[in-house]
Amino acid sequence: MATDHFNPTLLISAILAQIATALCLSDSTIGQAETNGQNTLDIIHAKLTDYFVPFDNCTTMVFFRDKLSWRANLPNYGPIILLDYDIKISLVTGRMIYNKFSVLRRRNPATFCWATLAILPEKASLLLPTEFHVFLNMPSFIYTTLRSHYFVIMTGVQNDVKSYLRNYVMFLRIYITEVILVDVTKEDNSLLRFEYHTIYEIKKPAFGMEPSEAWHQMDCEPPECFSRLVQLIKNFSRQNKYFWTTRGTHSANLLSDIVTKIDIRTLRNSRHPYQRIANLISFHGFLCFIILQDVLAFGFANLTPFHYFDPMQKISTHGLGGYDFIMYDVQKYSFLSCYGIRENSAMLGALSSPFDVTSWACIIILFVMVVLILTIKLKRNMSDGIFLIIGISLENSVSLSGYETRFRQKKYPMFGIRTLISFWTIFVGTIFISWYKTWFTMEMIVPTVYESPWKSVMNVEGIQILMPFDLLAGNIISMVPQIDYFRYKMFYFEILVRCERVWKMYTSGDHNVGERKTAKELFQKLKNHFGMDDRFRFVFGNRTFSPMGTLTQPYDKNVLTDYPIQPVEYDEQDSYGVIKTLKTCGKVALMDEKENIAAITNFLNDNQQEVTFVQGDGDSFFMTVRGWTIPRVRNNYVEKRLKALISSGILTHLKVVYKLWTPSKLLGHYGNWTGPKVKIVSRLDFSSKVTTGFYVCGIGLLICFLVLLAEIVKHKYV
Length: 718
Known about the structure:
The protein contains 21 helices and 18 strands. It is α/β, with parallel strands linked by helices. It starts with 11 loop residues before the first strand and ends with a helix. The protein is 39% helix and 14% strand. Among the domains are: 12-187, no CATH class; 348-447 and 682-718. 26% of the residues are buried. The strands form four sheets. Strands 1-3-2-4-5-6-7-8 form an eight-stranded mixed beta sheet. A six-stranded mixed beta sheet has the order 11-18-12-17-15-16. It has a two-stranded parallel ribbon with strand order 9-10. Strand 6 and strand 7 form a beta hairpin.
């Protein structure tokens, strides 16, 4: 390793870099064709500083096998890090370089970038075929997932390097690193010669597509090379739109099958082809088709896809490693049950609902005060005052003649009594009663509201929760073989992962101690079936779910029948017994997405009257942030289109249209429903609030009859 200080204002570091793992040597080697070594070194020493010029604003790392001598060509660009190849031990890794240099403050007018110059890697046997390592991903180099990273390979065996990079596995490891090749055996004048590598090779373009070669040569003056290189990369990166697709079971290309079944050119003239596509694939496949429909007509099936647009999933708590996450929403789940359901609007509640407790208390106090005043002033029985006030309040015709005669005989003035009765007649017998009848009638129109004793079902002791197979795993469960073993394995493994996250996310002093306790119990009950310990390490053998599994592996459904969470599936025959289990009204609940629970609740309540099911919203135990994990690609075509669909609201519209064309089949009810959908109205049965009006009418008639009977008895016998 050699270290030189170019200038006091420039950063020149000398770090010893050695490779951590010994590479496996093979008899068939690459890059052993020797050129004139001395001539090659002379060319490198003569032109090396010129190749620093395009990357003068980048943090540059120079790798060389032996000590690098600058001779008279001392560069004045930086920062530059000199490292050498050593396969014995590694003290410095690309991660350390990234952590140190990416946070330094710089007064740099240009965009920050990374530049790695690997000089004669074939001399260090770094181009040998190996099963475990790829040259660009060795620990000595910084991450290939970083943006604005230029990896320059200066080699004397150009054809061997190109053959090495043609390996398909290499394409998956390059990510967004810009690979540039420099042939040091070709000495030129003052111009620099680069060969830029692109994975988007199009040898036989369809009509309207531009051809593209894997390697593009560029000759330029040193000060102009970087801007020309950036423009070249930008132009080639736009072709990533032809190399996208989505995957199905066993990583099958779903879109290529759709293209062969439907004429893409007819889509713009009618909505029916879109509806046909929606009937063939899931919503994610439909969304992927909408995003890529402009390029599918250009012969998409003839190109090998490099990038996959996977279904929406929860955000990962670990590093994405070459992927970006586009957040969509926060997913919470709802539930329904008939356990412990109670009405919050019984008959007495319906009678008192027009006014609150304070208003009714004031009215009762006024009633008692008026009755006492009349009793004291008129020197009559208290029942006379009660009958008078009740009669006025019920809008009956009453008279003060009997009271006036007795009152005038004692020569008492009648002005105060008449004023009191007048106020009561106007404000209570007229205004108050009319107001009450109006609000009471309005209250009768509102359907009866039922309440569940649960706010969240996950913390209820002894409860059994029914949950669809794809609720937590989403569309990913459709990508596994559709046999019981893999479906149950994916379902319970998703529960295992989420419970572990909830358990270890909260501390013992958190306010969510109940959720933490529940998550720990669920995790401990389930981990043994996967043969894992608390750190997801396989420590047991011959468990319910093996690490791999085969298509012929059986699954015993009785193994996990005592587990609190059970998977179900909706069908017309109700083969999983969802309705039968829910109708027991025990400690059992169905958990699903909010809109599905709302539809199922209406279905269950409209098709039977034995019990009433109630929906609960916002259970946060399995709450998660959802979005799409997108491969990190320069000028990402799918990412731009997806963000445009989200921000414009088109994605929400597509979801609505897709559900109209392919409605969810929930318990065999809404799957085949083609009639008009109307709003739910109150059912006119004995559990309806409208019946309260008839009860009130009967009670009023009974009170009037009893008062009349009491007055007759009083005047006849008293």
